[in-house]
Amino acid sequence: AAAAPNTPGASVPKPTQAEIDAVYNKYEDSDESTLMWQLVSQNNIAELEAWLEREPIMAYLRSSDGRGPMWWAFENRNQEIVKFLMKLGVPIQDGDKSGKTPVQLLDV
User: Fold this and answer.
1) Full-prediction pTM beyond 0.70?
2) Which of 25, 39, 99, 105 could form a disulfide with 95 if both were Cys (CB 3.0 to 4.6 A apart)?
């Protein structure tokens, strides 16, 4: 029998490039972006992984300043989350609204 959706171990389809682009190119503050910032800034890798297993598209969300989980992971120098997001395909070379890439946040 196939695993039911949202059960542990169930395979969630990888988002399509069109779905990724729709989320990644939309800059807005939301409950999801606030939760994402909290999980990343608090280094809550277990909860972050569980959420992104259920909803992998959320790895690509961005707040109104154009930053998302990859920027926050670099800002907090959280290598484990950076590696996890890279494995999901989240880019590290894109700029936020002011053109700063996640890597450039290490210089701050």
Assistant:
1) yes
2) 99
